[in-house]
Structures
1.
Amino acid sequence: MARLARLIALVSIVLLGLPLAARADDIHVTTTGDSVNPDTACSLREAIFAANSDTAYDGCSKGNGTDRVLLDPGHYVLMRNGFGEDGNNVGDLDISGQLTIVGSGAANTSIDASGFMPAQADRVIEVRPGADATLEDLTVTGGHAPDGFDALPKTGLPGNPGETVVGTTGDPGANGGGMFNQGTLTLLRVSVTGNHAGDGGAGGAATGGSGDSCACDAGSAFGGPGGLGGNGGGIANFGTLTVDTSTISGNDAGTGGDGGDAQGGAGGALGAHGGRGGDGTGGLGGLGGWGGGIFNAGTVTVERSSILGNFAGDGGGGGSGTGASGGVGSSDRGADGLGDGSSGNQGGFGGGIADSPDALTPLMTISDSTLAGNGSGSGGIGAVGIGGSPSGNSFGGSGGDGGYGGGLLFRGNGDKVSNSTFTTNITGAGGGGAFAVQTSTGTATDGHDGAGKDGFAAASFSVGVSLEQDTLSGNGVLPGPPVIVLGGGGPAAHTTLYVGAGALTVSNSIIGGECGQNGGTTLTDGGHNLAPDGAGCPGAPGDPKLASLTDNGGPTQTMALTPGSAAIDKIPVTGAGCPPTDQRGVARPQFAACDIGAFELTPAPPGGDSVAPTVSHVSVSPRRFAVGAKPTPVSAKRRKVHKGTKISFQLSEAAQVKLAFQRKLPGIKLRNKAGKQRCAQATKRNRRALLAQVKKRLGAKANGPGAAGRIKKALRKARCSRFATKGTLNRAEQAGASIVAFSGRVGKKPLRPGAYRVRLTGTDAAGNRSRAAAAAFKVVKG
C-alpha cells in the first residue's frame, strides 16, 4: 500500500507539472447578418473574431483553443465591403487561429460573398499563415477575388524627336476566388461552387509624341501587357489542403487582361521636308489563370470527392498597333510608321486542378474521386495592326494557344491519382489570329491562329507521376448540349493523356482516346492497362463496355463496367497493386481477380427497377444574372451583370427532369388546427391569426407591463421565407452531367428581379421519382 501511495503521488507530481491542454469551446452563430455591431447577436464574422483571439466578442462567447463555430441552416451573406485587409473587419473572412466551422449540410448552409459591392468584390475565406481551419457540412459560394486594376494610358510629349512611350502593365488578378489558404485547411462534406479568381487588368494604352513643328521624327508607342489572370477559381492553396467527401464545381480562374493599344505619334513637317511617323506596337495579352477548381502551390490531398465543371482562365487578347503617317513637306514626306498588333496570350492550365509552375515542391494526391466536365483556358485573340497611311507596313497579332490539362495539370514530383474517374474534360481552343490592314503601298502580314493544347484528362510536366487503377474515358467533349468555344483555325488538341516533360507511369487503368509525348519524355506501362483506342496509350486493346457517369453508390459518381467488359478479372489479387476497394468503397475482387479501372463489377441484383433516380450536384453559374432576350446565356466581357445563366446537375440514370423556378418571399409561421406549423403568406388575415396564436401562447404574459415588447419579439421570431413557383421547364436528360441554358425566361415570361431557387426532380422510365434538389440564384436588373 505504501508503494502504491508513493506511485500515485509521483504521477500526481508529474501531471501537475505539465501544462493542461486547451479546452475547445462551441461558439453559436445567432444571425445570418454580417455585422460587427455592439448588440446581443453573434454573427459569423464576430464568431471568427472570438475564435481567433480566444476572447468574447459582442454576442459571441469566448473562444478557447481549437473552437467550433456552429451555423444553423441559412444563407450567410457577406456584406462588409472592402478588400486587401487581413484583420477580418471587412471583405473576406480572415481566419488566423485554430477553428472548425460546422454547418447544417451543404444544401442547407451557405457562406456567400456575392453581397459585396461589385467594385469591392472579394473571396469568401482566407486562411492566414499558421492558422488551422476545418470546414464541415456547408457551401462556399459567390466569391470573386479582386480584379487587377487597368493600367493608366500614357501620352508622349512632342519634340525633336517625339517622345517614345511604353505602356504600363495591368495589375494581376488576385488568387483564390472562393478561398485562399496559406495555413492548414480541411474540407469535409463541403461544396465550393460558383467562385471566380480575379481577372487581370488591361495594359495601358500608349501614344507616341509627335514630331512637333519641325521636320522631326515622331515617337513610337508600345502598349502595356495585360495583367495575369488570378489562379484558383475555387481554392488557391499555398499551404496544406485536404478535400474529403466534398464537391468543387462551377468555379473559374481569372481571365488575362487585354494588352494596351498603341498609336504612334505623327511625323512633323517644316517647309520642304517631313519627319518619320511613329510605330505602334500593341501590348501582349495577359496569361489566363491556372486551376479552375484548385490551384496548388503547396500540398493537396483529395479523397472521395468530385471536381466538376471548373475552368481555367482564358488568355487576354492582344492590343492593337497603329502606325502614324509621316510628315508631309512641300517636296518630300517622312516614312510612315508600322502598325504591329500584338498576340493574345495562352489560356490557363489545369481546369480541375493545377500544380503551380513556380512552387519548388507542389504535391498532389488524389484518390477515389471523379473529375468531369472541367476545361483548361482558351487562347486570347490577336489584335489588328494598321500601318501609317499610305505606305506603312502592318502586322496582325497571332492568337494565343489553349492551355494544357483539361482535368489535371501535374508539376509536382511524385503526384499520384488512384481509383479515380476522368470523363468529359476538355482543353481550350487556340485564339484567332488578326488581320493586318492593307495600306496603299505597304505590306500587310496577317497573324496566325493559336493552337489547342493536349491532355484532355491530364497533362504532366514532372517526374515520378503515377496513375493507378483509374478510368479515363469520354474526354475531349463537354457533357450536355454543344458548347460553342470561340477560337481560331489552328491545330486542335487530340490527346487524352499528355506528357510534356519528365516521366509518367500508368498501371491497372483504362485509358480511352490518344496519348501523346513531347520529345525526351517517358510514358511507362506499369502493367494491366486497357487501351481501347490503341492510339499511343499503354495497354492491351479491348472494349471496356463502360456505362455513362452516374450514381452507382459511394460518395462520387462512377462509370460502371457492364457484362462482357474486357476490363473484368484482369489484375491478380496479389503482387499487381490491386487495392482493397474500388472508387465507391466496394471490396475487390468480386470474382476471381480484380477489374481494371476505378470500378469493380458486382453481381447483378435480382428483380426489376424499383430504384428512384438521383438528382445531385445542382449549381447555377453565374448565380447573379439579368434576364436575357435569347435562350442561350450570353456574358459580355468586363460586364458586372451577366445575361442569363447555366444550370448544371447530375443524374444517376436517364430521366424526365422538372425544373421549378421558385421565388423567395417573406412569410409568417402559422399553425393549423392540427398544430402543424407552416410558412404562410403575410396577408392581413394571416397576420391577425398569428397575433391571436402569439397571445394565446404567451397567456398571462400577453397583458400588463412589458407585454407589447414580448408580443413584438414573438412576432419577429415568427418571420420565415417561403417559395412560390413562377414557372417550370421539363427536360429529357441522359445519365451523367447535364447543363441547361436558362435565359431568365420561362417560355416568353421573364422572371422579375429577386431571390429565387431552382428545384429539380427526376422521374425515370419506370415511374420512380427522385428526391428534390435545389440551388439558389438571384435575378437583377440588366
Note: Residues 372 and 423 are 5 Å apart (CA to CA).
2.
Amino acid sequence: MEKISFNENWEFYPAKNGLFGETGAAPRKVTLPHDGVIGTEREADAESGSAKGFYRNGSFVYRKVFTLPREYENRVVRFLFEGVYMNAVVWINGEHAGQCRNGYREFIIDGDALLKAGEENEIKVTCRTGEDSRWYSGAGIYRDVYMLVGDKVHIAPSGMRITTLSADEKMASLSAELTIENREYRNRTLLSEMKILDMKGATVAKERRIVTFYGKTREEKLSSRLYIENPLLWSIDSPILYTCITTLSEGDREIDRQETPFGIRTLALDPLRGLQINGKTVKLYGGCIHHDNGVLGSATIGRAEERRAELLKSAGYNAVRMAHHPASPALLDACDRIGLVVMDELGDMWNVPKSTEDYSSGFGDDYLKDIESLIDKDYNHPSVVMYSIGNEIPEMGKPSGGVLARELAREIRRRDGSRFITAGVNGMVSNMEEVFHRLAEKSSGSGVDGMNGIISELGSRMKEIQCEEFIVNSTRETMEVLDIAGYNYAEDRYLKDAEQFDNWISVGSETFPKDLAKNWDLVMNHSPVIGDFSWTSWDYLGEAGIGRNVYDRALETGGISAAFPYFIAYCGDFDITGRRRPQSYYREIVVGNRSEPYISVQKPEHYGKKVFNTAWSWSDSIHSWSWQGYEGKKIKVEVYGKADEIELFLDGKSLGKQTVPLKSSEKELAYCTVFDTVYQPGRLEASAIISGKETGRCLLETASENLTLAIELDKREIPMNDRSLAYAFIRFTDEKGRIDRNRFDRITVNVRGEGVLQGLGSADPMSGDSFFEDSYSAYYGELLAVIRPTSRGRIVIDAVSGGFETVSCELIVR
C-alpha cells in the first residue's frame, strides 16, 4: 500500500473537564509528531508528582479536516498510528472507527466504510492520561501518522518478511514471505515480483510469480527462497542494508509497490561463545533509553531519534535497550543505518499495576495484539537481536508469572523464531512484600527509621537482596523460559546462577552506573555473560532527581525521587540536550574505547560538605577549569584513566602523582583518581602513566573574560520534510572557543524565515522555564535550540543575552 505522511494540518486542544466534545481552549495548528503536555506548566501538586516530572495529566483532542481524492473511491484507505499516548479513540466523520489503550503500540484504523471520496472528511483522535506511568510519558499523537492507500488487492502493511537462513562471504540464503490481502469479491490473477537491490541500486536477486485470488480468499502468503552471491553482511562495524522492492501487477498495470529495507546477518547463542553475529562473538556495551526527546518532550520526530543513535554510537556504545516499551520505527531505522544492536521491550507491566491507572488493566485482553504489533514493526530490522517480554514485572516471582512468561515467549517464538528472548528481571521487585517484611523485622531496634529508612536501604542493598535463596528460587521458573536471563541490578548472581542452572546465558539488562568496572570484567572474562546495559545512557524527564546529589542534609524522604521543582531524572551519560556528561567518558575508558584520561572537576562550592545521593548518582563534577571567585580555595579534581598512575599539572608544574585504584569500594571508584588541590586559573593537565611511560594526556584551560555568544549547528543544510530538525547549541565562549561554565544568563532565541523554534532548553534538572518559550536560562554556559523547517528556503537563528551582542547563523532547507 502507498504510505503517505499524514502529519500536517492538525488542530490540537485540551478537552474541557475530560469531555472530548468540549474544548478547553482555542484549537492550535500543529504538525505531528506532537506532545500535548510538554508545553504546559509544571506544578508541585500535579497528580503523578515526581514520576512524570510534575507535569499534569489530561484529556486531549486532535482533529484534521481533509479532502479525500475522488480517485480513492474504490480503493482501500487506512490510517497507521505509530503511537498515541494513551487510551486513544479514533472517530471518522463523527463515527467511532477504532481505539487502542496501549500508548506504545502501533495500530491501524480502516477508513473505507466511513470516508467520502471527493469530499471533505474529518478525523478526530481523543486520548487521555492519568497516573499511568513511572516516568514522563507525554500525551497525544507523539509518533508519526500515515495514510495507507491501495488497490482492493494489495500487499499487507508490514507484509514482507525477510529472514536470513544462512550467510557467509560467498552466499546468502534468504526466506521471503509476502502477505497479500484481498477485499475484492471477484477472481483476479496477478504477477508478484521481488527485486533485491544493494546499496548502489544494483539488482542482486529477483523472483517473479503468478498468484490467483478467488473472490472468497481474504489473504494469501507467498513463500520464496532467494540467493545472493558474495553478500555484504550487516554488523555493528559494517551496517550494510539491502532493499527489497515488491510489486503486484495486473496485466501491464502496477497495482501495488512496497519497499522494504533489511540486513543480511546471522545470529547464534551458546554458553561457550555467547552472542554471535555472523559467527563472531559480540559483547554488548549498552545503555537503556526512555522515549522522550528532552526539550521536545515525547514527540518522536525522526531526526531526534537519529541524532540520539548517532551520539550514542560516537560515544562507543554498540547496543541500546528500550525502557520500557517498543522502540519507535524512526529509532530502529537509525540503529539499522549506523550499527547499534537493540533489545526491544514489550512493556513495564503485565496484570499487576505499578501505577494506579496504568496499562495493566488492558494487558490481559490485549497482549496478543501487543506482541503482533511489536514483531510486525521489528521483523525486518537487523539491529533488533532480542525481545524483552517485560521489565521488573511483579508476577515474575510467582508461579502465575512463570505460566504467563511461557505464554508470551511461546507467542513471540511462533511469530519470530529468528531472535532471542530475555526480560529485565528484578527479584526484589517480584518479592516486594516478603522483602519489606524481612527488612522490617531486621530494622526493628536497629536505628532504621520506619518505612522511609527501609526504602533507602532497599536501594543500597538491592544486589545483596537479590542473591537471597528465596528470591533466586522464586524467579527461576520465569528465568528458565528465557533464552537470555536478564538481570536488573543483580550482577552478583551471574556466575552463581550459571553454575547452578543448566545452559545459562545472561545479560545485565539494567545496572548501576558506578558498577561498570566490575560488570565489564564479568562480561569480558565470562563467555555466558553477553553484555551490560547501564541505567541510563540518556537522561530523561520524570523519575525526578533519581541521580541527584544533596549536600549537608539528607535526601528528601519518601523514596528515591526528588521533590518539586526537580523534573529531570539527572542520571544519564548524556544529558537531555545530548551533551556528554563526565560519566560517559569514564565508561568509555573502562570498556577500552578511550586511551586518553579525562578530567572532571567537582564544583568548589560543595568542597568539604557531606554528600547524600542515590545508587544512580554520579559525582557532581564537570569538565571545566573556570571557577571565577574561587581563586585560592580548595577544590577536588577527578581524573578517569586506565593506568598505573595519574600525574596532575597546573601551568606545567606537577601537583603530584597518585596510584590509580583498580577496584571500586565504598571510598573510591575504580579508575578514578581524586586530587585535593587549590584552584588557580590556568592550564590544568592530567597524564596517564603505564610502566613509567605516558600513554595519554587531557587538558583543561580557564576561559578568558573576553566572552561572546556562539552558535554551533549540527547541520548547515537540512531536508524539507516532517522528520527534519536542526540542533543549535548556544554557548558563552572566549576567543579560543573555551566555554565559560559559570554562566547561567538568560538567552533569547529568535527564528526567522522558513522554520520555527520547536524547543528551547537546558539540562538544568530544576529549571522553572518552559521548553516552549523563546527564552531560557543557560546551564553551565550553554543552551540548546531545536529548529523545525516549515518550507524550503533560508532560516536565520538569532541569539541574544543581556550585555552581549546578538549572534546569528544561517540554515538552508533544501
Note: DSSP finds eleven helices and 48 strands in the chain.
